[in-house]
Amino acid sequence: MTLSLYGRLLLAASVASTAFLGVTGWVLDQAFQDSAETAVRDHLQGQLYGLLAAFDVDNRGRLIVPANLPEARFSRINSGLYARVIDRDANVVWRSGSLLGSSLPARLKLASGDSLFERIQTRDGSELFWLRFGIAWEINDQATVDYEFAVVEDLANYTAQVESFRRSLWIWLGGAVVVMLLVQTAVLRWSLTPLRALAEDVAAVEQGELSQLADEYPRELSGLTRNINAFITNERRQIARYRNTLGDLAHSLKTPLAVIQGAMESKHPIKSVEVAAQVERMSEIVDYQLRRAAAAGRRTLTAPVSVPASVKKVITALCKVYADRNIQVEQKIRPGLKFYGDEGDFFEVLGNLLDNAFKWCRGHVIVRAGPITEPGRRSGVRLYVVDDGPGIDVSLREQVLKRGVRSDSRVAGQGLGLASVQDIVEAYGGAVHIVARGGRGTEVVVEFPAG
User: What pTM value is reported for the model?
Assistant: First the structure.
């Protein structure tokens, strides 16, 4: 079973939160155990100091046991608090009444001034906290006697405290997990509302209820929705272009076909020149319409085309074709400039513009290109192709962008070329401008807008 995005996020958040609180609980539990052990040590140290204050030695170095011990539990059998004193040879010289019927494990005596706190296990398996302290007791100014005092307590109170803390800790952490999961669920549902709305809008577009996605989405989704809208627009333009192309092709072929049909039905002999002219015209029409339909238009999911590399490739090819004219080409291309569209479309535009410039120029061609930028969009391209030819008359500047119109019929191919450029650029939502330079050549400006 495949989880939804909401399920995946909720599962990930739940696992992360539970793991975090689990680690937190373990750390707090360990910290409390350490704190509880420290409290036990401090308590035993207090009991040990109390015994040292209560005991004394005589002139012969023998231990004097007080009649009343500082802690009543030392006198109560199995009270959980025990004490023992051993001499320098590790012989037991005193033990508390609470040890009646039991004994403590034998240990090597500590050196005078040393202390040791440890957690030991007896033969019957019970655990004890044991604090030992070695002392050198002065008998007089010249003699001392060594003893070791040991105070022992079982783990009953310690275990009860730890268990009580653990119960409270895990109850509160469990409640925190439940509350956190509820909060995360609510937050995730609220956070994913735009995605659900986007999915619903996409479904509405598929069903034809909406023409495009709305713009009321968070900033993080605006790039996605903009690209989806661009994709939808491009696909609709492509379909419309196919329909228009087929209609234009059918309409354009009517006249040449009618001329040929009339010539065939005429009683006069058919002139091959007339038929050839109409066939050539039909071939140009078909070629133009096919190139027009093939224009890919703006693509949202495509690798960018390097403008400097493309310009260099086309100029290299044309310099070989027009090698006999020794044409000087000046390039001013922004380094790293990218064209976000179909590579074939860009080469078609470059090829037509530069081919016309090479045909018409006297010996110098300028190619310039720079970016068109808009916030939040991929950069577009502004392309300039300038030649030093005779220029185009003002009255013909708009007409040469229409199919089949040429500024000078002596130079073949310019009409269809510029018309193809116009169709391709319009497919990207751009524009083509022809700037007259007062008889000093022609400047063609092509703008592929940011998208």
Answer: 0.49
